Structures are given as C-alpha cells and as structure tokens.
C-alpha cells in the first residue's frame, strides 16, 4: 500500500474498536490450500481478537489484493499479514510493542526470509511440480466451477504462478533444490528459536504466527510425497514450537462460530 | 394458359447465365410501343442477372421468382421493383438496376418480355479504422467486414477495439436461409468489458451466442443459446462489501426466446404503430452455474393527434426468478433510472443499494406517457427543424427485490408501494434512424431514501428510451 493509503487506513481504523462481527474470509474448505490461514488465525488469537471464519468460493477475487485470506472489519477490508498487523496496531492491539529497535529489525528480517523462502517454496511445490499440480492443486482449485470454466481457471492460475516463479528465478530449480532450500530455511529458524518458547522470549509476535502458519501448512497438507514434512519434523524444536502454539491457541478456546483447526489432521 | 408462365421455379425456365453483351441500356421506348403493351397481357420469358461474380445463382432465384407471375406491364414493373428491393436487402449488392425489354431470340413471343437486373457486387473485404476518446480513455477500433463470403449472402464481421483501459473484440457470422431472408442464423463470439460506476462494478464477458431468427405470420421470433464466462470485479477500492461479494468468475449458459411485433413506422420517434416485445431467458439447464428464469416485456403505442403531434405511451416490466438457492447475480438483475428510463433520476440509481452502490432488483416496472410536438414557431421547417421535437413527459416506475415465498399478491403490492415518478419537458433530436438525443427539464417525485436524483436539466443519448 502507498504511504498515503496506509495513513488513511490507520486513521479510519483507529476511530472504532474491534467489532463483534469481524470476519475472516477464505476459500472453500478443500478448494485451495490457503497458506496463510493458520498464520492469520494464530495472530488474531494471540491478540485476543475474535473473528468468524467464512468460506467463500470467490474469496480470492473478493480480496482487494487478490491474496487470501482477508478480513472484513467494520467496513474495512484488509488482506495480507503486513497490512493486517498495521491495522490491528492502529486499533491498539500489537504483539511487537515490547521489542526494541534491534529486535524489531531482526523480526522483520526473519519475516522476509520466511516470505521469500517458505512461501515461494510452497507455491512452487503446489503449482510448478507437475505431479502435485495435476493430482492435487488443479482439481482442488477448479472444484467450485462448472465445466469448462474449471479447466480454464486452473490453467490460468498455474500459468500466472509459473510466470511469477520465472520472474524471481525459481523456474529452473528442481524439486530437490526446493526441498533443500526449505531445509536450510528451517535450519536458520531452528537455530534462532533455540530452546526458547517463542522467537522473542516469552511473548509471541507476528513472526511466531507467520512461522507457525507456514510450518503447520507444510506438515498438514497432503502432497504427493512426505519428504518435505519429514524434513521439518527432523528439527524437533520447530515441531514442538508448532505443537505448543496449536495447544495454546487452538485447542483451549472453544468459542462458537470459530473454525477450529482440528478439521485438519492435528500435529498431536 | 401458357406453360411458361406457370413455371415458378427459375431452375429450368430462365437463363441466369452471364450475358456480357446483353446489357441493353434503357432507352425511351417509342410511344406507340408503350401504348400497345400497356393494355396487353405480357409474359415474362426471361429474367437475367448480370454482373454476378461470387454470388451463387440458386440464392437469387428465390428473390426474383415473383417477376414471372406478372401479367401486364404495370405488374411487371411493380414486381421488378419488389425484386430489386429484395436483392438489395440481401446486403450483397452495392447497386441494382432493372431493365425491361421485349423478348428476343428464336422462341420470343410477340408479347414476351425480358427483365434484366444489372447488379454490382460489394467488394470482398471492407475495413474501417476509427479512434475513440471517452472518459479518460482512448481506444483504437478496427473493423473488418466480409459480405457474401461463400456466395449465398453469408456475412462475416470482425471488430476489435484496443484501448488504454480495456480491450474487446467481436466476431459475427450471419447466414440467411435460401429463399427466406427473414429466417437466418447468427453466430457471435465476443469479449466485452464494461464499467458501471453506479454499482462500482467492472464486468468482463467472454462468450458465444448462437441465434436463430424466423418470422411466424406477423411476428418475429428469435431463439438463442448463449454461453458467457463472466468476470466481475470492483471498480474502486471503496466499493461496498455487497458488490465485493459478487466478484469472481461465473459461467452462464442460457436459452432464450424473444418475440417482437413491430408495426411502427420508425424505431426512433415513431408517429404511428405499436411495438410489443417479450423476452424470456432460462439459464442453468445447459450447464454453467447461473441458474434463473428471466422474463421481460416492452409495449409501446403511438398515435397521431391534432396538429402534427404524437401521443406515445410505453410500458416496460420484468422479473427474474432464481432457480435453486443461489440468489441472482448482480449482472443479471434489472436496473432502473436515468435519462433513458425514468428521467429525473441518475443513471440506474433507483432501488436497493448498499453504501451508495446500486445493486439492482429482481422485479421492475416502468411506464411513460409522452406528447411530442413540433418546435414552437416551427423554425427550420422542412429541413433541419424537422429533426427536433418538443416533448412533454410523465414517467413512473418501481424496482424492488421479491421474496418468492410470498404469493403474487404480495409481489404486486410491493411493486405498487413507493412508486417513483417524474414529469417535465424538453427537446428531442433525432439522429438518423439510429439514435436520439434529449435535453429535458425534469422534476422527480416519489424519491425514496437511497435514490440519487438529477433534478433540473438532464441530457440523455441512446437508442431505447422509455
């Protein structure tokens, strides 16, 4: 978002408190693997902000930036983690207030690492690996649409993702190279986490929500091979980190209307 | 009776071949010969068509068959004129001229006649190139037309528009039935984009439509199948959430039927006659995910009054019934208001709305009563002034959503409450036989909360006005 737009959003956002009927929109269950869904849910629960989860087939097109999931709060629609974090900050809820400048810079660096590596790797595996794309991703993506629109849209999306991959230089990579990159990224995260509970000591921050979201997605999504989730499981502190967050934030509270992550296979 | 005149099909009788040296120009017949022929019975022995290139002969046989039926000279002239009109209507000739002469040759009868149609075919390919400038947008429009491509009056047109914001194109193929030009098939392939600022909606349609037109007695029918891939999106970031929820892709596959009875003397500013058009569309049973039954009708009556003024009354109405549990899409609903329907209100700004974006409705009706008179003091009479008319109008209508669980009585009641209406006067300019411009002073009444009005002077341009 441009600076002016950001300022505008935060001014408007600051005016009202978090409403009861805030909603998080995501594609239909089973339609698409929504990479950021556990991230956002974890973040909002960490901030103690209630949201209802609504599933819509056209969530991707409803979103102002084309990325899912997005939140609809009051009459504001915000998508992507960065703007949502700023939006909640403008309303007075923030997880990273306790950090000093050095830590904040470090947090931003790690978030960039996760976005560049893990997010791109997940997109690559879903759309550029032909076996996965044909068996899992394309049928899922095209399921809400009638023939022949389903094929047209699935291929169009695949073409878009592939074009993006070649723009950032990932098109030439093989699947093994991608797995290796993911493994290296996890190693860096594992080292940073060490034996701490969360990345920045006792309190979770948006970095924790982001890492949790990605790792949870990789571990619980059904892909053609289990190689990737095995790699992650080899880093035991990351695995216990994920379990901890799932236990603290997704199984304790049983608020009606919320979507428990337990529809997906649990890590336990 | 001579057997030759009873031969209706020109397959055996006339000689339709090229006779390059046969072109005898019309000269003034000597007075005596004309006198004799007028009173006498004549027989049309041969009908030639000169100047054919790629046109196939069997196509033309039907159009000129009637000429053989003529019994005397006046009849021959009348039937030849009608045949000429029919040939021009095919849209494949630039010029058609008729030459009537006495029969020649060995088998020429004393009262035999030869009729020759001298035609000039249209070129195989015609193109056009324009640039258009609109609201913050410029575009280049390229048009290509191939008339009569296979020789039987088929027509292929292609139009491509490349703009700074949107690109659209259309390919259309038209084929009439041999001998019955009014029965024809038309296949269209198109991509069009539209921006609707009153709903903050952007729509891109890519589709195929196949239609079959045929007349039955005095009515014209059209049967059409259409498959459209629709993509809806928000026009601005500030679009309301109700419109945002409609974004995305959908596929509409529908069958529709339309019936038109049109006895008006002109489509723009008619002086007499009536129009009745009814259209129904059923979507969802041939694929796609839009599923509804849509009906709409249009009635217009015109009557000439004293002093060259015309009284015109019109009524429009429509209803869409979603089949299944999904509500009708915003792209299928009806809209009301604006200089072409209920004057005095902003474009399509009546009815259900959310945060300033108009969502359309499932049922509507609109009526208008107009009095057209020539301009006061009749300036420019006989020339330019005849294109203008003064116009007094009264418009009324309503647009709402229906709850289909209730009965028809409840629906009528709903359509009858909160009627919007307006009255006023203005000037109408007729543009050829295609469009009309209006400048009106309007006073809107019955305005409900949420409607946007345009009281005072309102300008309108279009083809179809209430």
Automatic annotation (TrEMBL), chain A:
UniProt-listed SUPFAM superfamilies: GST C-terminal domain-like (SSF47616)
Any GO BP: mitochondrion organization
Cellular localization per UniProt: Mitochondrion outer membrane
Gene3D superfamilies the UniProt entry points to: 1.20.1050.10
GO CC terms of this entry: SAM complex
Residue span(s) of domain Metaxin glutathione S-transferase: 183-245
Xref: CDD domains: GST_C_Metaxin2 (cd03211)
Mitochondrial outer membrane transport complex Sam37/metaxin N-terminal domain ranges (all copies): 40-158
Source taxon at top rank: Eukaryota
One Pfam family recorded for the sequence: Tom37
Predominant subcellular localization, coarse grouping: mitochondrion
InterPro entries membership: Glutathione-S-Trfase_C_sf, Glutathione_S-Trfase, Metaxin_GST, Mito_Protein_Transport_Metaxin, Sam37/metaxin_N
Keyword terms, alphabetized: Acetylation, Membrane, Mitochondrion, Mitochondrion outer membrane, Protein transport, Transport
Family: Belongs to the metaxin family.
Assembly: Interacts with MTX1/metaxin-1. Associates with the mitochondrial contact site and cristae organizing system (MICOS) complex, composed of at least MICOS10/MIC10, CHCHD3/MIC19, CHCHD6/MIC25, APOOL/MIC27, IMMT/MIC60, APOO/MIC23/MIC26 and QIL1/MIC13. This complex was also known under the names MINOS or MitOS complex. The MICOS complex associates with mitochondrial outer membrane proteins SAMM50, MTX1 and MTX2 (together described as components of the mitochondrial outer membrane sorting assembly machinery (SAM) complex) and DNAJC11, mitochondrial inner membrane protein TMEM11 and with HSPA9.
Function: Involved in transport of proteins into the mitochondrion.
Protein name: Metaxin-2
Native species: Scleropages formosus
Lineage: Eukaryota, Metazoa, Chordata, Craniata, Vertebrata
Gene behind the chain: MTX2
TrEMBL record, chain B:
Domain of life, per lineage: Eukaryota
Compartment(s) where it occurs, according to its Swiss-Prot or TrEMBL record: Mitochondrion outer membrane
Membrane topology: Multi-pass membrane protein
One Pfam family of this chain: Omp85
InterPro entries in the record: Bac_surfAg_D15, D15-like, POTRA
PROSITE patterns in the cross-refs: POTRA (PS51779)
Presence of the UniProt keyword Repressor in the record: no
Record-level GO cellular component terms: mitochondrial outer membrane
Gene Ontology BP annotations: mitochondrial respiratory chain complex assembly; protein insertion into mitochondrial outer membrane
Swiss-Prot/TrEMBL keywords: Membrane, Mitochondrion, Mitochondrion outer membrane, Transmembrane, Transmembrane beta strand
UniProt cross-references to PANTHER family, sorted A to Z: SORTING AND ASSEMBLY MACHINERY COMPONENT 50 HOMOLOG, SORTING AND ASSEMBLY MACHINERY SAMM50 PROTEIN FAMILY MEMBER
Family that this chain belongs to: Belongs to the SAM50/omp85 family.
Protein name (database record): SAMM50 sorting and assembly machinery component
Annotated source species: Scleropages formosus
């Amino acid at each position: 978002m441009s600076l002016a737009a950001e300022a505008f959003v935060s001014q408007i956002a600051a005016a009202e408190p978090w409403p009861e009927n805030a909603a998080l929109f995501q594609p239909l269950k089973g339609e698409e693997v929504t990479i950021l869904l556990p991230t956002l849910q974890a973040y909002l629960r960490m901030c103690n902000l209630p949201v209802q989860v609504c599933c819509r087939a056209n969530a991707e097109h409803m979103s102002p930036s084309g990325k899912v999931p997005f939140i609809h709060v009051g009459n504001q629609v915000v998508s992507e983690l960065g703007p949502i974090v700023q939006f909640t900050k403008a309303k007075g809820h923030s997880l990273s207030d306790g950090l000093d400048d050095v830590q904040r810079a470090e947090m931003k660096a790690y978030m960039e690492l996760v976005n560049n590596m893990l997010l791109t790797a997940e997109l690559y595996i879903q759309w550029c690996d032909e076996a996965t794309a044909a068996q899992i991703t394309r049928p899922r993506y095209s399921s809400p649409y009638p023939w022949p629109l389903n094929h047209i849209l699935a291929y169009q999306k695949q073409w878009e993702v592939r074009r993006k991959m070649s723009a950032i230089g990932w098109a030439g990579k093989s699947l093994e190279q991608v797995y290796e990159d993911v493994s290296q990224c996890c190693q860096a995260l594992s080292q940073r986490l060490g034996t701490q509970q969360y990345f920045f000591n006792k309190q979770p921050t948006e970095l924790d929500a982001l890492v949790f979201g990605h790792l949870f997605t990789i571990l619980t999504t059904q892909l053609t091979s289990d190689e990737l989730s095995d790699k992650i499981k080899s880093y035991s502190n990351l695995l216990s980190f994920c379990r901890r967050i799932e236990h603290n934030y997704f199984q304790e509270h049983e608020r009606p209307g919320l979507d428990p992550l337990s529809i997906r296979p649990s890590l336990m | 009776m001579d057997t030759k005149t009873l031969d209706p099909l020109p397959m055996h009788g006339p000689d339709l071949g090229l006779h390059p040296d046969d072109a005898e120009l019309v000269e003034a017949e000597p007075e005596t010969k004309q006198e004799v022929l007028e009173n006498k019975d004549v027989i049309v022995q041969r009908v030639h068509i000169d100047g054919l290139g790629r046109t196939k002969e069997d196509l033309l046989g039907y159009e000129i068959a009637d000429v053989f039926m003529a019994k005397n000279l006046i009849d021959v002239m009348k039937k030849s004129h009608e045949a000429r009109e029919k040939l021009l209507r095919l849209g494949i000739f630039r010029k058609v001229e008729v030459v009537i002469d006495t029969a020649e040759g060995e088998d020429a009868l004393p009262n035999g006649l030869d009729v020759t149609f001298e035609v000039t075919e249209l070129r195989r390919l015609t193109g056009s190139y324009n640039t258009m400038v609109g609201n913050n947008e410029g575009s280049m429009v390229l048009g290509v037309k191939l008339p009569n491509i296979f020789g039987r009056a088929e027509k292929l047109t292609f139009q491509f528009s490349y703009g700074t914001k949107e690109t659209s194109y259309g390919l259309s193929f038209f084929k009439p039935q041999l001998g019955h030009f009014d029965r024809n098939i038309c296949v269209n392939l198109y991509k069009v984009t539209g921006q609707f600022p009153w709903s903050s909606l952007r729509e891109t349609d890519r589709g195929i439509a196949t239609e079959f037109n045929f007349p039955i007695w005095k009515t014209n029918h059209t049967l059409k199948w259409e498959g459209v891939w629709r993509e809806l999106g928000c026009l601005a970031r500030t679009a309301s959430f109700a419109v945002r929820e409609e974004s995305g892709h959908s596929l509409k596959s529908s069958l529709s039927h339309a019936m038109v009875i049109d006895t008006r003397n002109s489509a723009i500013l008619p002086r007499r006659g009536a129009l009745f058009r009814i259209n129904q569309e059923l979507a969802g049973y041939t694929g796609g995910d839009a599923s509804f039954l849509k009906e709409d009708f249009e009635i217009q009556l015109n009557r000439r009054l004293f002093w060259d003024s015309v009284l015109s009354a019109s009524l429009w109405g429509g209803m869409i019934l979603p089949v299944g549990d999904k509500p009708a899409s915003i792209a299928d609903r009806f809209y009301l208001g604006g200089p072409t329907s209920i004057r005095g209100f902003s474009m399509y700004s009546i009815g259900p709305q959310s945060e300033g974006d108009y969502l359309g409705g499932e049922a509507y009706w609109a009526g208008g009563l107009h009095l057209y008179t020539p301009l006061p003091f009749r300036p420019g009479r006989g020339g330019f002034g005849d294109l203008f008319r003064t116009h007094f109008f009264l418009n009324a209508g309503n647009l709402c959503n229906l709850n289909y669980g209730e009965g028809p009585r409840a629906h009528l009641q709903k359509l009858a409450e909160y009627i919007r209406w307006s009255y006023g006067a203005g000037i109408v300019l007729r543009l050829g036989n295609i469009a009309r411009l209006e400048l009106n002073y309007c006073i809107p009444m019955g305005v409900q909360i949420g409607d946007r009005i345009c009281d005072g002077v309102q300008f309108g341009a279009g083809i179809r006005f209430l």
